[in-house]
Structure formats: structure tokens, C-alpha cells
Design brief:
This protein has 366 residues and is mostly helical. The protein has helices at residues 34-53, 61-120, 124-138, 141-168, 172-180, 187-213, 217-230, 235-252, 257-274, and strands at 2-3, 10-11, 280-281, 284-285, 304-306, 311-315, 324-329, 333-335, 338-343, 346-350, 355-357. A 3-stranded antiparallel beta sheet has the order 9-10-11, with no helix packed on it. The longest helix is centred in the first third of the chain and has 60 residues, at 61-120.
């Protein structure tokens, strides 16, 4: 079969001309008007582009179409990856913050324990610094208050130590001046300073009583007045001054020397009862009384004892009100340098660097 190049109809192989249009079947295919077709195609594309994106935008429709297709293809996947990335970042930050917060809390707890331990041991400068560091780290005003309190304690502890040093040198006036300078707001230090003031008063009182025993009443009165300038309003010294004055007046009228001697003996006895059992400050004796001073714990002095309790506080002074410096364990041995008789239930033993209750050595465990 022959195909007509003009009209496209089929014709028998023997045909020379198309049975439909009459054109010669072996004629060449007519040339296409490619220029016209190209123009028409471009015109059509422009019209289509203006229809979609507008006549004034000037964008190329094919580029727009490609970009739109890519956005349509990649958009949802990209959003998913962004969301997942944000979630992973937040989770990581949460874990890091939790670990950091935990480490901070542990560090604060450690610092607080160290500060409390330093405070308990009387290391107030060290405690003040630790509380100050805690305030800087936490901004907690309570720590700032504790830092200021420990600073004040440290300043008052320095006065107490200066008094103790003067006491060792038997400069009792200087010792008393330092003890009196301790602020009562520093409660623990103040309590120890007041106790040491009583010990200075005991030493002054003994000198006054010795003058009274020698019937040197005017000298006793003068000494009492001098000591009262150092320890104003001290009840013990005021009482002795009044007693010396009474003795002086009685002696002047020559009334019953036996009565005077009896009153002097009573004064001596009163001093022994009210006096702290050993005149000791921080392990150092201010005055040696020898055999005339018979403390209930005197037999322990110079002996070695063993701790029988599970543990024993070594305190800065002879009493539970004094801070614990450190602890002894059951089986530890200590040498007794001195004793302080607090009551029939408790005697305190000076072991050189602190005081321990004898109850922790005799099995009573109190």
C-alpha cells in the first residue's frame, strides 16, 4: 500500500496518483514552515506564562515550575528534619542542664558541710570564707548573713586568744581587758570569755583574802578597788571589798577578834566553793594552788585514761556549751593535765588541746 504524502490516504501499490486528492504519490514531502511554527509556539508559551504568573512579573514559567516542583517535593521532608533537630537539641540541653544542676547541688552541699565543720571547730575565718563563697555561688542571703556572723566571731575569737595569751603570761589585767572586749553577740566565744573573767576574778579574790587574813584591811580594800576598775561591777570582788571594809571597822573598835577570824574563814571557804576548780585557761594554769586546793578530780591529774565510750567530744572548754574541736574513739588513751569539777555528775579533764568529760572514761558514757 502507498500512503499519500499530501492527504495521508492509502492507495494500491500500482497507483501513481492518489485516488483521493489526485496528488502524485511519489512526490516529496512538502517543507514545513518552521519559522512560523516556532513563532506560534513562542507566542503560545508567553500567553500561558502571563496567564499563570501575571503579565508584569517577568518570571520564566519553566523556572517557576521547576522551583515549585522542588519545593513541593522537598518541603515536608525538610520540615520533619528541622523539627527532629530542634527536639534533639532541646533534649541534649535538658540532659546537660540536669547534670550541671546536680553537680552544683552536690558542690554546695560539700561546701556547706565544710563550713559547718569549720564553725564547729572554732575556725571562724575559714568558715566565713566558705559561707562567702556559698553566697557568691547561690546568691542566698542566708549564707551572706552567716559569712558576716563568722567574720564577727573570728574578730572576737582573736580577742579571746589575746586574753588567753596574756593569762599565760600572768598579765591578768591585759587578759581581763581582752575578755571584756568580746561581744556577747558572738555567743560561744563570749561564754568562754565570761568563764575566763571569773577565773581572773578568782585570782584577784585570793590576793584580797590573803591580805584580810593578815589583817591588812586597808590594803585589801585598796586592792579590791583597783581590781574593780579592771573588772567593773564584779560581784565577787565587790563583796570582798565590802567585807574588808567591815573587818576594818570592826578591828578599829576592837570587836571580837575571834568573830573576825571566823568571818575570814567563812570567806575563804566561800571562795573555794565559788572559785572555778582550777584556774586554767586553754590548758595553762594562771596560778598554782598546790595541796591547799583539793578538787574532787585532783586524783586524775597526771594519769593516763582510756576512752570507754564509742566516741568522745574534745571541746574547747570545760562544758557542753563549748564547741567540739574533734572526736576520740573507743580505746584511745589520753593524758590528764588538769581537771574541772562541774558537778557531782560530771568532771572535765584537760588533755592538753581540749577538754573531755570523765564520764567517757569511767564507763558511764555520758
Amino acid at each position: 500500500m502507498k500512503i499519500c504524502m499530501n492527504c495521508g490516504k492509502e492507495n494500491p501499490d500500482s497507483s501513481v496518483f492518489c485516488n483521493s486528492c489526485g496528488k502524485r504519490l511519489d512526490a516529496e514531502e512538502p517543507e514545513k514552515n518552521t519559522e512560523r511554527e516556532t513563532y506560534d509556539e513562542n507566542l503560545q508559551n508567553q500567553q500561558t506564562q502571563r496567564l499563570i504568573v501575571g503579565p508584569d512579573r517577568g518570571e520564566n514559567f519553566s523556572n517557576y515550575s521547576d522551583t515549585y516542583s522542588k519545593k513541593k517535593e522537598n518541603g515536608p521532608n525538610k520540615k520533619i528534619f528541622v523539627v527532629l533537630g530542634v527536639l534533639v537539641l532541646l533534649l541534649t540541653l535538658g540532659v546537660v542542664y540536669t547534670q550541671y544542676s546536680k553537680a552544683q547541688k552536690e558542690q554546695v552541699a560539700t561546701m556547706q558541710s565544710s563550713a559547718l565543720a569549720s564553725e564547729e571547730k572554732g575556725k571562724y575565718d575559714e568558715a566565713s570564707k566558705l559561707y562567702s563563697d556559698l553566697y557568691k555561688k547561690t546568691k542566698d542571703e542566708n549564707y551572706k548573713g552567716k559569712a558576716d556572723e563568722m567574720k564577727a566571731y573570728a574578730e572576737n575569737k582573736a580577742k579571746l586568744d589575746a586574753g588567753n595569751e596574756a593569762f599565760r603570761a600572768q598579765d591578768y589585767q591585759k587578759a581581763a581587758e581582752n575578755y571584756l572586749a568580746v561581744d556577747e553577740k558572738a555567743e560561744k566565744v563570749y561564754k568562754e570569755a565570761q568563764s575566763n573573767i571569773d577565773k581572773v576574778a578568782d585570782i584577784y579574790a585570793e590576793d584580797i583574802i590573803n591580805l584580810i587574813k593578815e589583817k591588812k584591811y586597808d590594803e585589801a580594800i585598796g586592792l579590791a578597788k583597783k581590781n574593780l576598775k579592771i573588772l567593773p561591777d564584779n560581784v565577787k570582788l565587790t563583796d570582798l571589798k565590802d567585807q574588808a571594809n567591815n573587818f576594818s571597822m570592826a578591828a578599829a573598835t576592837d570587836k571580837g577578834n575571834k568573830e573576825l577570824e571566823s568571818k575570814i574563814a567563812d570567806l575563804e571557804s566561800k571562795l573555794e566553793e565559788n572559785k572555778t576548780n582550777t584556774i586554767v585557761v586553754n590548758g595553762t594554769e594562771g596560778r598554782t594552788y598546790g595541796s591547799t586546793y583539793n578538787s574532787p578530780g585532783a586524783a586524775l591529774i597526771g594519769t593516763t585514761q582510756t576512752i570507754t565510750s564509742d566516741s568522745a567530744h574534745v571541746r574547747s572548754g570545760p562544758g557542753k556549751g563549748y564547741g567540739a574541736l574533734y572526736y576520740l574513739q573507743k580505746g584511745d588513751t589520753v593524758y590528764i593535765y588538769d581537771t574541772y569539777y562541774e558537778s557531782s555528775d560530771r568532771t572535765w579533764c584537760n588533755i592538753g588541746d581540749g577538754w573531755v568529760s570523765y564520764n567517757t572514761m569511767n564507763g558511764s558514757g555520758r
